[in-house]
Design a protein that fits this description.
The chain is mainly alpha-helical. The chain is built from 7 helices and 3 strands. Helix 5 (54-63) packs across helix 6.
């Protein structure tokens, strides 16, 4: 401790003044090789399955026979800098009214929701990715 080197205070009194336990002062952490192996396996599995988070990777590791709780898996997962890759948001138009009706040339087109409302068809496919001719024009 720097305080003890600069003064003649005892270790016990210095720890008491700082508010530190003497056991914490003498503690030396040791790296566990099984944690390093498990972290390497998590990185490998995360590379294979990019959309899996630590919970699903924990299930895969448990199936392989490794006994590790979710807190240890989360710690190793975050220490490795892993995170689920976020999907990019789909760009949608600012005006949702553009999905209601479209006009191409002399025809009027509408989406399934327009058809369902106009003709009362409940069996039309849902969603607005299908477009149908609503009223074909009559040429003179």
């Amino acid at each position: 401790m720097v305080m003890r080197e600069s003064t003649t205070i005892s270790e016990r009194r210095a720890c008491l003044l700082v508010g530190l336990s003497r056991t914490v002062l003498h503690y030396e952490s040791t790296a566990q090789p099984e944690n390093e192996q498990l972290q390497a396996r998590l990185v490998e599995l995360a590379g294979e399955r990019r959309r899996f988070g630590y919970r699903r990777l924990h299930a895969l590791v448990r199936r392989e026979g490794v006994q590790a709780n979710h807190k240890r898996i989360y710690r190793l997962y975050s220490d490795a800098g892993l995170s689920v890759r976020r999907r990019k948001k789909r760009k949608r138009p600012a005006n949702p009214a553009c999905f209601q009706a479209k006009v191409f040339g002399s025809q009027r087109w509408g989406s399934n929701s327009v058809i369902r409302r106009a003709y009362g068809r409940s069996n039309a496919p849902r969603g607005s990715k299908y477009w149908h001719v609503l009223t074909p024009t009559v040429s003179d």
